[in-house]
Design a protein that fits this description.
Elements: H1 7-28, H2 35-48, E1 52-56, H3 59-69, E2 77-81, H4 86-94, E3 98-102, H5 116-119, E4 124-128, H6 139-149, E5 152-156, E6 164-165, E7 168-169, E8 176-180, E9 194-198, H7 201-210, E10 215-217, E11 220-221, H8 232-242, H9 245-263, E12 277-278, E13 284-287, H10 291-300, H11 330-338, E14 339-342, H12 350-362
Parallel strand pairs: 2-3, 2-4, 4-5, 5-8
Antiparallel strand pairs: 1-9, 6-7, 6-12, 8-9, 10-11, 13-14
Helix pairs in contact: 1-8, 2-8, 3-4, 3-7, 9-12
Length: 365
């Protein structure tokens, strides 16, 4: 068996560090809004290259609260990509705004900047580019359009921990950026968790209030808020893992290069990386017009794969009210029928990559 993801292998390498960090929290008896969270926020902000990070309860909450903190609310429109995980639009909906979808670039499968102008209206308040699979969006082009048209950019960095666009880490471009620390992420907690990063002190202060019932100081609530706090145990875990993130991302890139080499000439299309991008390979996603049959073939031979994502947002029943029919976003629709995520994690053995490549090469549609 070759699993799609093996988180136990990572844990074995850092077990002593993790247990020491958790023991420190348990000994302190402080579990919410304590020293570990404050330290992680400072360290994560420095890692991204911004002034502030605010830990919240999940990546979806990070999108939701980031949008509220930059002034998005009912009646506003927020532009994002059709080829994304539903939590992106769930966060927009939670902020009271209307998602407006655009198509993706056919090679990187991230938001196509050329689609933005036509999608933006006088009601457009924000743009949420999604750094899908760990490949950065073309942030130079997106930021130029946002500046010209007046939209606020909130990056969805749920899959982009440590990825760079033109040498700058994802998360350092927009007014704010949302991160998820779901366990399977490149920087993953041992439960749900998220953070918003920003250079704006007012946005950071609003986020700190919003995540904690709108509290200005103890028992005094300045605004209506929510309960969405990254707890001390998760913050302690993330502090340990952050120290290893660049090493793990480098290991993922080495494994992606091995896949690229071994899959050349096989009946799949391997990922394209833009020359200005540094991919973190949260996912290694190939494309095949016979995707379902290929997945079944690999499954029969003990290889775990997943589909990210088989249904575009506008085909989801929950978002049928967006009113986008078949053919509205052809590149997103085509991708959702062709993409297949192969096993990818920093500790993935190279002989396993060789075995997967052999099986792909042997596939007969």
């Amino acid at each position: 068996m070759i699993p799609f993801l093996d988180m136990k292998s990572q844990f074995r390498l850092i077990e002593a560090e993790i247990r020491a960090a958790l023991d420190e929290v348990l000994a302190s008896s402080r579990y919410v809004l304590g020293r570990q969270l404050a330290a992680f926020e400072q360290e994560f902000a420095a890692y991204i290259g911004v002034e502030y990070a605010v830990g919240v309860g999940s990546g979806t909450d990070a999108i939701h609260l980031a949008l509220r903190a930059v002034g998005v609310g009912p009646g506003d429109e927020v532009v994002t990509a059709a080829n994304t995980c539903v939590p992106t639009v769930a966060g927009i909906w939670a902020a009271g705004a209307t998602p407006v979808l655009v198509d993706v670039d056919p090679t990187t499968l991230t938001m196509a900047p050329s689609t933005l102008d036509a999608a933006m209206t006088e009601r457009t308040k924000a743009i949420v580019p999604v750094h899908l699979y760990g490949h950065p969006c073309d942030m130079a082009a997106i930021m130029a359009i946002a500046e010209r048209r007046g939209g606020v950019v909130v990056e969805d960095c749920a899959q982009a921990h440590g990825a760079r666009c033109r040498g700058v880490r994802c998360g350092a471009f927009g007014k704010a950026a949302a991160f998820s620390f779901y366990p399977s992420k490149n920087l993953g907690a041992y439960g749900d968790g998220g953070a918003v990063v920003t250079d704006d002190p007012d946005v950071a202060a609003r986020l700190a209030r919003l995540r904690n019932y709108g509290e200005e100081r103890r028992y005094y609530h300045a605004v209506k808020g929510f309960n969405s706090r990254l707890d001390e145990l998760q913050a302690a875990v993330l502090r340990v893992k952050l120290r290893h993130l660049d090493e793990w991302n480098a290991a993922r890139r080495e494994r992606a290069a091995a896949y690229d080499r071994l899959l050349a000439g096989t009946p799949v299309t391997t990922p394209t990386v833009a020359p200005w991008a540094e991919h973190n390979y949260h996912l290694y996603v190939v494309r095949s017009p016979h995707r379902d049959a290929l997945q079944a073939h690999l499954d029969r031979h003990g290889v775990g794969t997943l589909l990210h994502y088989p249904v575009p947002v506008h085909f989801q029943e929950a978002y049928a009210d967006l009113g986008c029919g078949q053919g509205a976003f052809p590149e997103s629709e085509r991708a959702c029928n062709e993409v297949l995520s192969l096993p990818m994690y920093a500790e993935l053995p190279f002989d396993a990559i060789g075995r997967v490549a052999e099986l792909v090469a042997a596939f007969q549609p």
